Structure of Enoyl reductase (ER) domain-containing protein:
Amino acid sequence: MSGKTSANAWVYTDAYPQGLKQGKINIPSQDGEKVIVEVNACALNPVDIQTMNLPRKNANEKGKEWGIVCDFSGKVVHAKGFSKGDEVFGISFSAFTPLRTGTLAKVAVLDASKTCMINKPVSWTNEQASALPLVWLTAKKCVEDVKPFLTKSGRNEKRVVVLGGSSAVGIYTIILAKKLGWKVLSTSSSRNKEFLQDKLKVDQHVDYTTDDVRAKATAFKPQAVIDCVGGTECIGIPGNLRYISIVGDKTGRETMGGPYTYYDWRAPAYVISQWLRWAKGYVGLGESYDVVILDPKREWLEESTTTISPDSIYIDSVFPFEKAKEAFQRLDTGRAKGKVVIKVQ
Ligand SMILES: NC(=O)c1ccc[n+]([C@@H]2O[C@H](COP(=O)([O-])OP(=O)(O)OC[C@H]3O[C@@H](n4cnc5c(N)ncnc54)[C@H](OP(=O)(O)O)[C@@H]3O)[C@@H](O)[C@H]2O)c1
């Protein structure tokens, strides 16, 4: 790649899907502020679509080409603390910096301060490595968040409800919870029942398309609920100590979720109910409530390499670089089981 000054990339100029198109990115001179990676594979997340759908702040932003996608695996071209050619994987929020770049590019030029990257285990393929960072770091955040509440409950048996067990975040939340010896009730459609029971070893499966999820979750007597799909059905289960959501009250996947929903005044009813619920929990009236976001901690990403074996990295599908639109369509069905990956080269 030496000597190249530009590289092919997928960019967006407007909201998804019409704004997504092929373009080029400039490869700058190699300075310490940038991480430059020859991308081998990247994985899509709902946030990539939600980023394209964020409101444009002013007319200047119209028509500008911006990069997308956070997760990646590839070879270092330039990065402080790494050697050229090192095989790495990680996550970058460069799309939210003035650089506005992403990893769905033959070469990714990323803001070093917003990039969490480590060496790729030799036994992992690039597709596997790219599939893990964002969802693993979110699952880890969820499990670490509820842990003190389970301890506080004083009960020997720790019981957690994971809403959306076959979602990419739900999968690793369950894996982590089971490793800690917690009992897990989890939801999915019947399509993924066997997967949750046989592979992820949940203690109870609930089919959200046919069962009364709230009634079943209440009977399970959880100390914590981890919501990976959005909605309000299981809020306020008697005896529950902590409710966290990575989405918020909304259930649609096209707009930004997570803590952003506390401020998204396009949906004022959700903003008000979430703040009120959070305040009630904060002063000790009922369960503690919050909408949380992943923490891109390097040590947590390092931990994935010793906790997760390659055969428990779940990939829904792999698309070639040229078929990125089809990959986004697959993600956008909301039916993927594991990650939608793009093989970049
Ligand atoms: N706050 C954060 O830091 C953060 C981080 C990552 C993701 N998120 C958000 O979390 C959500 C999930 O992301 P993801 O990448 O894990 O999603 P995903 O893998 O694309 O989710 C697809 C899965 O969700 C399941 N599902 C859909 N509706 C469901 C429902 N009502 N109940 C139970 N399962 C349901 C589907 O199972 P069936 O086919 O069986 O229906 C499918 O397996 C997205 O809204 C995303 O924006 C937030």
